[in-house]
Amino acid sequence: MSERKDGSIPTFPQVDEPGLTSSQVQERRDAGQVNKSQERSSRTLGQIVRANVFTLFNAIILGAMVVVLLTGQWKDAVFGLVIIINTGIGIATELKAKHTLDSLSILVASDYYVRRDGSNQRVSHDAIVRDDLLWIRSGDQIPADARIVESYGLELDESMLTGESRTVRKEPGDQAYSGSTAVSGMALAEVTAVGVGSYAARLTAKAKVFKKVHSDLNEGINTILKVMTVVVIPLCILLIFTQMRTVGGLQTALSNGSWRQAVVSAVAGVVGMIPEGLVLLTSLNFALAAIRLARKQTLVQQMESVETLARVDALNLDKTGTITDGGIVFEAVHPLDPSGESDQDALAQPLVDVCAEENPNATGTAIMAGLPQVSPSGTVRARLPFSSARKWSAILDRSGRLWYFGAPEVLLASQAEAHPVVEAQVTDLANRGHRVLMLADGGTVRRSDAGQDYFQEAEALPADLIPRALISCSEHIREDAAPTLAWFREQGVRCRVISGDNPATVAAIADKVGLTGAAKPRAMDARDLPENLEELAGALESVDVLGRVLPDQKKAIVQALHLSGHTVAMTGDGVNDSLALKEADLGIAMGNAAPATKAVAEVVLVDSRFSHLPDVVARGRQVMANMERVAGLFLVKTVYSALISLGVVLTGIPFPYLPRHITYIGALTIGTPAFFLALAPNTRRYRPGFLKRVVAFALPSGFATGLTILAAAWFMPTLLGLDRGDSSDLNALRSICAIILFFMGVLVLAQVARPLHSWRGLLVLVFAVAGVIGACIPLVARFFAITIPQGGALAVTAVSVVAGGVLMALAVLAYPPCARFISQLTSRR
C-alpha cells in the first residue's frame, strides 16, 4: 500500500512476531515462492499460427496453387492469394484475444507492508513471498492468500470473488483470500499461498482458458469443405487422367510438355469446387462488423461473436449496471411510532451516526446525502460496521444507547410474529421496488459495559429489539433501460433479471421498466430453485425475475437454458460472473466490470451503456442475414464446378475453361458484389438451418449453370467446326464457355440480389458491364485468355446464353420443392 497523503509512514500496532529474516526471504525467492504469476493464456503464438495456417481450406488451396506453379503457369495461380489474406485476418484477431487474456489480472498492483527482520518494510506486490507476515489495512486489496494472525476489527469485502457484497469480519485463524478488499480495520496475516497458487490466480486461470466461439456459419463452411475434400481428391486424380488422355496419353503429354496444360485444367475443376471467397468474405465481414461496433463503444473480442449476436434468444441481465446504474437514492424515513421517540427528526441523528462508518457503503452514503441537515454527532463510543454476511450494523453512543441498522427480516428474525404491522409495511415498500432497511433500538447497556470494545464481545443481536423506523431507498433506473427492453421484446429475445437482492424488490423494478410488457414479471427466490438441471430448465421457463441468486447458481442457470435449446447471452461485472459468462454463448461485460470479467467476455460495452445492446444484436443479424444471402453465390460455383468436373471425367473432353477464367468470373459475379451485398442493412431475425437453405438454393442454380456449360463444351465444336485437339481451337472454345459462364453468373447474382428495383439492381448492372468492358481491354483479355467470338460463334454463344437463362428460370421455380426435400431429408436423419 502507499504512504498517506501527507507523506508520513503508516503506523502499526506493536507486535512480537519478527517475521521472516532476509535469508529466509531469499530462500523462498530462490524456490520460486514469490507472488508473481507466470501463467499465460492456453494458446501460444505458435499454436495460434498453426491453428490458422494448417487448416483444411488452406491445404486444398495451397496444394492446388503449388501444382499450378510447378507447371509454370503462374497466371492461373492467383487464386492462392486468398490464403494469405484470410490467414492474416485470423491470426491478427486471435493475437488480439491472446493479448487481452494475457493481460488479465484480478489484483491491483500496488505496494504493501510486511514484517521482516523485526521491522515493517514496504515491498511491491511481486516481492511478497510465502510465509511473509503481511499487514492488511483498510483500502488494501489483498495480494495473496493469507491466514489472519492478529485482527484489529478487520472486515473484508469479498464481492470481487463471490459476486454480491460480502463484507465479512475476520478473526485470528480465519482465511483471507487474494482479490478481496479490506473495508475497515486492520490485521496482521501470514501469507499461505502466492502467485499461481493463490485463490485469485486459480480463478483467473479458469477464466483465461481460451474458448473458441461456436459459429454456425463457419461450421457450415467447414462441412462443405469436408464434403469437398472427399470429392476433390478422387475427382482431381480422374481429371488429370482424363486431361492427359485428351492430349494423347501420359507418354505423349510428358514428351511434348502438354502435361502442364492437363494439370492446370484439372486444377480449374478443383479450385472451382472450393468456396475460397466465402471463407475470406466471412472473415472480412466479421472484422468489419467488429470495427463498426467499436465505433459505438462496443468491443468484440472474438470475430465469431458477431454471428452469435444474431442467434441470441435468451438474455440474462444483472439488475445493477443494466436496468439500474448502481446508484442508491435515499427516499424517506418512515417512523413506526409517530409519537414519542419515533419522531422523524429525533431518529435522523442516530440514523446518520450509524451510517457514518470509516468506509460507508452505497446505502449509507445515500442516506447521509439525503439528510444533509444532520451531521455525525461524534458521540459514537463503539461501532460494528455493516457486513452483508450479517446484514446489519450497530453503534453504541456515549449514553450507553444501542442502535441497530440493517435488513428488517434479519433484525426481527427472532420476533417476526410480534410485529405483523411492521412486516406488512416492509412487504408493501419492497413490492413497490424500494430497498427497505430498519433502524432499531437496542436499549441501554450498563456504563461498565459501554467500552470501545463492546461489539467484540457482544456481536450477537439482542432478542428484544424495538423497531423505530423503516428507511426506504431506491436504485436509480437507467433512462435507456425501458426502450432497450422493449426492443428486445419486439425482437423475440426473452430477458430475465438475475440478482442477489430481494426478488419482490427486483420484480418491482423490472415492472417499472416493462421487462415483460403489460404483464407483471414473475419472480422467484433462487433459494427455491431445484438443483437438477433438467428440473431447473423447466422452472426457468415460467420465471422472469430471480432474486437471492448465489454466484454458483449463475452458471447452472446458463446450463439449464442450454438444455432447453436456447442461445444464451449474459451480462456481468464481477469476477464471480466470469465462469458463467464463459458458459454462455455470448458473455457481455460492462466497461466498469472487473478486469477478469471483461477479459473473458466476448463483448464489452466500454461505456457501460445498456442501450448499445440493440445495436450489437442488430449488427449480428445483419451479418448473418447477408452472409446467408451471399453464401448462395459461392455454393452455386461449387455445385456447377463439381457437375462440370464429373461431366468432363465421364465424357473425356478437355476442361471447358482455365483457372484464370474462374478467377475473373468469380471476382465480377461472386466475390466483389458479395462484399457489397454483405454490408447492406438487414435486420431480419436469424432462423436456424442456414446450411440447408443455402444448399437448397445452390443445387438448382448450380445444376442449371453446369448443364449449360457442359452442353456448350459438348456440342459447340460440332456446330462451329472446332477441333478440341488443336490448341488454338481449344482456347477459342474455352473462351466461349467462359463468356457463357460469366453471363450465367450474372443471372445467379441477379437472383441473389433481389429485389432489383433498388441499388441492388444497379449493382448487378455495374458488374455485368464491367465484365464486358474488361474483356474488351487488350491487356485484361490477354492476361485472362478471353477472346470475344465473331460471326457464327457469337450467334451460337448468344443462343447458349438464352438457353442458360431458360434453365435458370426453371431453377428459380425448383427452389421451394428443393428446400422442402432437403428439410425432410435432414429431419429424418
From TrEMBL:
Signal peptide: none annotated. It is a multi-pass membrane protein. Keywords: Hydrolase, Membrane, Translocase, Transmembrane, Transmembrane helix. Residues 113-206 form the P-type ATPase A domain. It comes from Bifidobacterium [indicum] DSM 20214 = LMG 11587. The chain crosses the membrane at residues 48-71, 77-95, 224-242, 262-288, 630-655, 661-682, 694-720, 732-750, 762-785, 791-815. InterPro entries: ATPase_P-typ_cyto_dom_N, ATPase_P-typ_P_site, ATPase_P-typ_TM_dom_sf, ATPase_P-typ_transduc_dom_A_sf, ATPase_P-type_domA, HAD-like_sf, HAD_sf, P_typ_ATPase. It is found in: Cell membrane. Residues 1-39 are annotated as: Disordered. Its EC number is 3.6.3.8. PROSITE patterns: ATPASE_E1_E2. GO terms for molecular function: ATP binding; ATP hydrolysis activity. GO terms for cellular component: plasma membrane. This is Cation-transporting ATPase. Pfam families: E1-E2_ATPase, Hydrolase. Residues 26-39 have a biased composition (Basic and acidic residues).
